[in-house]
Amino acid sequence: MAHSISKHKHSRGANRAMTRLDPIRFRLRILLAAFIVVMVLGTIGFMAVEGISLADAFYFSIVTIATVGYGDIHPATQGGKILAVLLIVVGVGTFLGVVANATEMMLNRREKRAKLEKLNMVIGVFFSEVGTKLLIVFSDHDPNLNTIRRDLIATGDWTDQDFFRVQKELKNYDYSVEIVGFNLEELRPLLLEKRGFLVGLLENPVLLEQESFTGLLHAVFHLTEELEFREDMGQLPDSDRAHLAGDIKRVYVLLVNQWIDHMEHLKDNYPYLFSLAMRMNPFNQEASPIVK
Fold first, then answer.
1. Could you tell me if 134 and 243 lie in one domain?
2. Could you tell me if 35 and 126 lie in one domain?
3. With DSSP H G I counted as helix, E B as strand and the rest as coil, what are the percentages for the chain, rounded to 5?
4. Is the dihedral angle over the CA atoms 155, 161, 167, 171 positive or is it negative?
5. 225 Cβ partners below 8 Å, 6+ apart?
6. pTM for the whole structure
7. Contacts (Cβ under 8 Å, ≥6 apart) of 281
8. Cα Rg, the chain, nearest whole Å
């Protein structure tokens, strides 16, 4: 029994970001290296000039750089005083740089997590409003779907390895949408009805953090425009229907992969949302919101 558009109303993953060298982390590494060098040279210097033990020299260097003042131990020689001055000038700046950059990095991580959470919320709304409906329509016209359908029926027992396995299999999957018998007149109003909603998503600044989802939205917009400009869907030549099949396939491929990432995010972070998503699985022909 095939799904219809009206049947269902319905990252971690969200989200695979490109790995780049964080400039803050880079600066922190440089400052940490400089701080360690200053500490080592200061410790060795105090041992040589003041004639003290390694532990006392290390302690001496720490209290000098931290500017906490001297108590039981203080420079007793002229060379020790000069070394302490140099250590204060060089070490304090390095120490403060390490603290400032470490704090900035932690704040940025917190901000990034908050943005990622907002992004995953946006993706969830997208699938609730239009994404799942499109998956139902497209998958119903995928002649090869039965070869992977069972692998797409996510369950509560799935682990990270299961999601990874499915994502790997999808890379080799021959996505296809059979345009013969495809009711384009049914698809067009769905997309036109949701155009305002999709425009609102593109205006959300958090989408800048997720290139793959932005690419999906652009693909959906393009398909919407292609369908809008055709007045009579029943009189299209085979060449034009083949062109539309290519546009549909582009959206279908991006949708499936984004859906898997979104399901993994729900599984890891929102078990109750994942439970509903499992029951409303667009690839399950017996999907139902009723808990059985």
1. yes
2. no
3. 70, 0, 30
4. negative
5. none
6. 0.69
7. 152, 153, 154, 287
8. 30
